[in-house]
Fold:
Amino acid sequence: MAALCSRRVGTISNARRVLRRQLQQRGGGVVISSSSAKPSLPPTDVSPIDDMVTKWERKEPASTPPPPNALPPKATFGAVLKASQMKANMKTDTLFVLGIAAGALIGFGALLMNNVGGSSPALMAANPGACNFLKGAVGLPTGLFMVVMTGAELFTGNVMVMLSGLLAKTVQTADLVRNWVVSYAGNLVGSLLLACIATVGQVPTAAITKVAATKAALPFTVCVAKGLMCNWLVCLAVWGAMASNTVAGKAAAIFLPISAFIALGLEHSVANMFLLPCGKMMGADVTWKQIFANNILPVTIGNVLGAAVFVAGIHYFAYGRE
Structure:
């Protein structure tokens, strides 16, 4: 043991002599005494070497600038393309289950809209504008926010994402078709499932029967036009949520376009997958043929056109051709 300690002391002394010689050659102000473990520093000066060593010993992390609150438009389009690749690589069963989740979450938003703004007949009679704003503010923004935050697969948003990827050649046609078909089917299952549960629980108000009857009676072309404008706004909400780096920013980006489309009385295919079947289950005088042929089909066509032309198409033309 004594021999081992002696060897260690000799090694430390040699290291000190080498360090003292190197510092003197460099003109450093540190002098290490062999009889003292602490360096003797000039009283009025701090060696740059000492300063560097002190910072290293503290292991101070390098300061990095915080990320921006939102991506610029071109970078957002890049994020959309990355999302299209992720969706293309997603397993089919995962895509379907997340589609079910999205349909149910949008259904919750539609149910909330019906039970709050849609169930305020006195306000609608006295101030239709305020009632429409209430319906827009309370309901579907909540549904889409939950979809975005949980990573659920919503058909109407996927139209924009996958078509952007197809235009930019980051995904194949087969990837787009699989995503659209599976997410649409999952949305339908989730919407119908929630409609059944809500009806059994007697959650919807009677106003939902009038909503279902009114929507089922709309002309085909009106549904297409309202569906087009609706998904133009919905996809801009998804775009804004992808651009934002904060939860509050995502919420604001979703709230503004979604509340606008509801206040304007536009048509969303997945929301209608809940509202019309739930209205029928609650006693609305509509048939399943009217629900799908008169409303959901033309609204879906309009939703695809709105996302394809006015969001995916415009932004690919502006940012994706380079």
Observations:
- DSSP finds 14 helices and no strands in the chain.
- Residues 28-37 have pLDDT under 50 and may be disordered.
- The first helix runs from residue 2 to 26.
- The two ends are 73 Å apart (CA to CA).
